[in-house]
Predict the structure.
Amino acid sequence: MPSRLSIATIVVGASAMAGLLSVAQIPSEGQGSSVGEFPSSYKAPRMADGKPNLNGIWQAFSTANWDIQDHEAQAGPHPELMGAYGAGPAGQGVVEGNEIPYQPWALAKKKENYANRMKVDVSSDERWHDLGDPELKCYMPGVPRATYMPFPFQIVQGVGPEPYILMAYEFTSSTRIIRMNWKDEAPAESWMGWSRGRWEGDSLVVDVTGLRKETWFDRAGNFHSDALHVVERYTPVSPYHLQYDVTIEDPQVFTRPWKMSMPLYRRMEKNVQLLEFKCVPFTEELVFGPFRRR
């Protein structure tokens, strides 16, 4: 039976911990009114043309690539082989209201995608992309998924009357060019889409169309059609953070537009650089193994 002294120690310790947690929730002067907010007075450093300087290597530290909605930790597809290595982490969603407004048929398709996410069948040109998460097969991730995969990406920003902004991603060494102040529509569909940018105050706003229907939003099977329209906002909120806000519109799949948001973190390691993750050699056996000559 525990002594009165040990019970008192537990009570005092619990009270002290509660007090520390309470203090941790109190914002200091200049901070936002709640945890995770940034001061609205921040002004980013400028390029030679006066535009905010977004150059750097950035990364989203979230579990959105597993599931953009709230999700529990779960075993991987083959726990008997992978154990905890293949398990998926729990995570808080990045979708506003935690609701994706699927049309009824599309919600059923999303569930089907999840059930078939680890299956691959490239025996038919017509049904090549029907099964399996595109990430599993090392396809380019598309937008916005490229931004919140567990890999960094680099923004290379130029200056001039019609400057271009390059975004280079570590996963599959994908890239896309943001054409500033362009009016031309996408000439063709592509995995990373057609990006046209403009500045609204300190926010880089990117309008993305021309995306292939085969890309997914995450490993949970969330998907879209080739009518997808993405509007991204990259807003510097501190020397080390960008606020990333995304509006998704696809009338063929969803009943209304919906939004996602998350912070992006500047990678601060000494001599940090974007490395290569060219994953095609890792997938050749999975995708093409059945066609090997016996």
Observations:
- The radius of gyration is 22 Å.
- Residues 1-35 have pLDDT under 50 and may be disordered.
- The first strand starts at residue 56 and ends at 59.
